[in-house]
Amino acid sequence: MWYNYVIPIVTLIAGLVGGFFIGVFYLKKQLEQMQSNPDMLAKMAKQMGYNMNKQQLGKAQQMMKQQNQKLGKKR
Predict the structure, then answer these.
(1) CA dist., res. 30 & res. 13, Å (int)
(2) pLDDT in tens for each of the 75 residues of the chain?
(3) Which is nearest to 50 in space by CA: 38, 39, 42, 58?
(4) φ and ψ of 68, to 5 deg
């Protein structure tokens, strides 16, 4: 009888943890792609309501690369 309560709870926790890590992995991959693809970065900015020119896109990509390098050193 106790397993009718424990198994669903354990499954829920495992699913939440697994989903979190899969989401983080996916987000990191998307950010890495944006660093090398200015069109993708421009599309994201436009969805957020910003119109960026080429100079602003270049600056944003450079900032993302610098941030990624800082995070890489911390690991």
Answers:
(1) 26
(2) 888 999 999 999 999 999 999 999 998 888 788 777 888 888 888 888 888 888 988 888 888 888 777 776 665
(3) 42
(4) -65, -40
Residue matched to tokens 């354990």: 10
Q: How far is CA 49 from each of CA 53, 57, 61, 63, rounded to the nearest angstrom?
A: 13, 14, 18, 20
Rounded Cα distance between 18 and 75, Å, is: 21
**Cβ(64)–Cβ(31) under 8 Å?**
yes
- State whether the Cα torsion 41-46-48-52 is positive or negative: positive
